[in-house]
Design brief:
The chain is of the alpha/beta class. The chain contains 20 helices and 18 strands.
Length: 451
């Protein structure tokens, strides 16, 4: 019996010795296309190399190439660098990421994430949504810019109005804002119910509001402005501006900024204490928490959401987006870099690198912070009207701007009804698109294909 036990032990030892050792990743020099090589290395590269000493990074700088060329179109330069340099990783701001993704220049990451059990659950859902298309994930980001509805507690208390809450619709926000509309008495400065950055351009303000509810201004070759839904939205914008409930940024008298605080007050009127609510990005959150505004009592709620889909409305914008190029020579090494940037190890050092940034991978501290948690609550990101119109030819986009600047002010002032203005805008925008399509031969080719 003793011999049998000894024999079995020897067999086990031999089998263990023959077992295949786990393969170590091959060292690689990962080629990265980044906007600015120096900033990339300071923020990401040096930390990656410190934790992956067998790898090296070769960083190609878009800014450097633009300087060498004496300027030019950044989109064109990025396209040329992707083709010429054939990078493994593309690490660029979100607008370049979207363009590369839509052109088919990026690899989906889902199979890689699944194979390596890369945890996506702790990443802010709206960020993941912003980095996905047609159900597939194409990018990883360590940080993002979030948006929230900020409110002045003192003003709400003075008027005995309940504070805003999460998941309010735009209609509810407008109703609240109108309760603060009042003309200033004597030398008292005006107070406002709502500050929204795009009030300077009421057309874009209306489009942003409409996108929250999934109302499209353009789809499948047709403009769709002349509808009851759009008329209601433009009417709400008009009422809010004309009543004084909304601060009209086009009419704001900005003082010459002599110091940082004056610059902040010009850019973020909420800081003056005379605005009840503001829809703004996370820079306002950082400013409020950075000192100098301790006397301002404030709170936060989620940005307005869709009435039909209350989890939709987040305006999360990923910052530097890391993707694997479609023709990457070293996709495995590229994925190693992406895993680090989007993983727990980098998330742990991020507060030391940039304590003011919102981490895409939220920690327990983020979730327990009542204010910061607002940025992580919504599941899906709004579609941007800029993105939906961005597919149009540039001459048409320029014409849209001209048309909107002609008719929107007339609708806002009452010189033309909102309904008539929308009819005119839709008709003239469609004519501009049809002419462009005819000139480029799109219309004739579509006709031939349908036959």
């Amino acid at each position: 019996m003793k011999k049998i036990v000894i024999a079995m032990s020897m067999v086990s030892l031999i089998a263990a010795g023959c077992a295949k050792e786990p393969e170590l990743p091959e060292p690689a020099t990962i080629k990265v296309l980044a906007w600015n090589a120096n900033l990339f290395n300071e923020r990401y590269g040096s930390f990656y190399i410190a934790t992956h000493p067998d790898d090296d990074l070769e960083v190609i700088s878009v800014v450097e190439r633009l300087e060498q060329a004496g300027g030019g179109n950044p989109d064109t330069v990025v396209d040329e660098l992707i083709e010429k340099e054939n990078p493994d990783v593309i690490a660029l701001p979100h607008n370049f990421f979207e363009r590369a993704r839509d052109k088919g220049a990026l690899q989906p990451l889902d199979d890689l994430a699944k194979k390596d059990k890369f945890d996506l659950a702790e990443i802010a859902p709206a960020v993941t949504d912003a980095l996905s298309a047609e159900g597939k994930l194409y990018g990883i980001a360590a940080t993002f810019t979030g948006y929230a509805l900020y409110y002045n507690k003192a003003l709400f208390d003075r008027y005995k109005i309940a504070y805003p809450t999460d998941y309010m619709s735009w209609n509810e926000v407008f109703t609240l804002a109108n309760r603060f509309a009042k003309a200033p008495a004597g030398n008292e400065p005006a107070e406002f119910g709502l500050d929204y950055p795009s009030t300077a351009n009421p057309f874009m303000m209306a489009l942003n509001i409409g996108e929250t509810d999934g109302i499209s201004v353009y789809a499948n070759g047709k403009f769709t402005l002349n509808t009851e839904a759009w008329e209601r939205i433009f009417q709400n914008v008009k009422s809010c501006l004309s009543s004084g409930a909304c601060l009209d940024r086009a009419k704001t008298n900005k003082t010459a900024a002599l110091n940082l605080k004056e610059s902040q007050l010009n850019a973020m009127p909420f800081l003056t204490g005379r605005v009840a609510m503001a829809i703004s990005d996370s820079r306002l959150f950082r400013t409020l928490g950075g000192g100098g505004y301790e006397s301002l009592e404030w709170g936060m709620a989620t940005v307005p959401v869709s009435e039909r889909e209350p989890d939709t409305g987040a305006a999360a914008v990923p910052e530097d987006v890391f993707s694997i190029a479609q023709n990457a020579p070293q996709p495995a090494a590229a994925w190693r870099l992406l895993q680090y940037i989007g993983g727990e190890d980098y998330a742990k050092v991020l507060p030391r690198i940039d304590p003011s940034s919102l981490a895409a991978r939220s920690s327990a501290e983020d979730q327990s912070d009542d204010d910061k948690a607002v940025f992580y609550k919504l599941q899906r990101r709004n579609l941007s009207p800029v993105a939906s119109l961005g597919v149009l030819p540039m001459p048409v986009i320029n014409r849209i701007e001209e048309i909107s600047q002609t008719y929107t002010p007339q609708a806002m002032s009452g010189d033309m009804t909102v309904s008539d203005a929308l009819k005119r805008m839709e008709s003239e925008m469609q004519s501009a698109l049809d002419r462009e399509n005819e000139n480029s031969g799109i219309a004739s080719s579509q006709t031939q294909s349908s036959e």
